[in-house]
Write a structure and sequence with these properties.
SIR2/SIRT2 'Small Domain', about 15% strand, binds zinc ion, alpha/beta, 3-stranded antiparallel β-sheet, 14 helices, Rossmann fold, 6-stranded parallel β-sheet
């Protein structure tokens, strides 16, 4: 059903794009300064984020080689490494998933938002942030003070868990206390396994995600941070803005062709051409490097640097109190 919905939207959008005329450059210059000048004048900004914005908070990217997922899970004889993140396998054997969770929960418990999280919060304070779409489950944007309604957690979150049997909801503390003791959390009503409310492969994305058309049709500037847009349907969002809407990618790596070619549907309708391709040189800016350094640079050029650092200092002082609530 979800793919039918995307297909319907893409057909409509493709038809309208045929009649929308030639590409129009909205940036004074297609570089960092062009983005800074445009951002200073623009209010409907959407930010898309991925694991790269949380690596400076010491939260590892599961898919990175340094995390060594394969070696960690070798003892379980999984049919394939990513089986650990599928709903089907989780229902059969949640032990490998909770083995990783056992390592991750203390990290998540102690993590603090990064400069990038505060940059997103500052965009909101300035009245510029339309919405933040994230693949991250760590809720660090919320810790940075961003209101829940401003973020779409496309892959769920760790704040709560749900019993696979009776659907009873459990809070972070309940899950964390079990996971830290290396126990698999079980429901205190029906004894079934509890699954954190993260989206596993084979599960639908949250319904808030599927409202993306109303957000992306209004977007005037798309800022993509810390993701190589490898996972669909999230990656496809980058192709949902107006064909002339400037897009900036802040990441250690450029997005490769093979990754962006991952979705048959989006490519069929040519609505998600690779970032920075020749058809997008009028609107795509790639800022290569560490997200925090680049966000700080942007803030400096916008005259927001002091404000950003003050926001981070003040909020970090109160963070322990906030952490006790999630
Ligand atoms: Zn239950």
């Amino acid at each position: 059903m979800e793919y039918i919905r995307i297909l319907k939207y893409l057909v409509q959008k493709n038809v309208s794009s045929v009649f929308s005329g030639k590409s129009q450059q909205k940036l004074n210059s297609v570089d960092m300064d062009g983005i800074v000048n445009f951002l200073a004048e623009t209010n409907e900004v959407i930010v898309m984020t991925g694991a790269g914005i949380s690596t400076n908070a010491n939260i590892p990217d599961f898919r990175s080689e340094s995390f060594g997922l394969y070696n960690r899970l070798q003892k379980y004889n999984l049919p394939h490494t990513t089986a650990v993140f599928t709903l089907k396998y989780f229902k059969e054997n949640p032990a490998p998933f909770y083995d990783i969770a056992h390592e991750m929960y203390p990290v998540l418990q102690n993590a603090k938002p990064t400069i990038t999280h505060y940059f997103i919060k500052l965009l909101d304070q300035k009245g510029k942030l339309l919405k933040h779409y994230t693949q991250n489950i760590d809720c660090l944007e919320e810790l940075a003070g961003l209101e829940g309604k401003k973020t779409v957690q496309a892959h769920g979150h760790i704040k709560t868990g749900t019993c696979l049997g009776c659907q009873k909801s459990f809070d972070f503390k309940f899950l964390k206390d079990k996971v830290i003791k290396n126990e698999i959390p079980r429901c205190n009503e029906c004894s079934e396994t509890i699954k954190p409310d993260v989206v596993l492969f084979g599960e639908s994305l949250p319904k808030e995600f599927w409202n993306f058309t109303s957000d992306f049709s209004k977007c005037k500037l798309l800022i993509i941070i810390g993701t190589s847009l490898a996972v669909q349907p999230f990656a496809g969002l980058a192709g949902q803005v107006d064909l002339n809407c400037p897009r900036v990618l802040i990441n250690r790596d450029q997005i490769g062709d093979s990754e962006m070619l991952g979705s048959f549907l989006t490519n069929l309708f040519h609505l998600n051409p690779e970032f920075g391709s020749t058809s997008n040189t009028h609107r795509d800016v790639f800022l290569e490097g560490d997200c925090d350094k680049i966000c700080l640079q942007l803030a400096e050029k916008l005259g927001w640097k002091e404000e950003l650092l003050k926001l981070m200092d003040e909020n970090n002082r109160n963070i322990e109190e906030k952490k006790s609530k999630i």
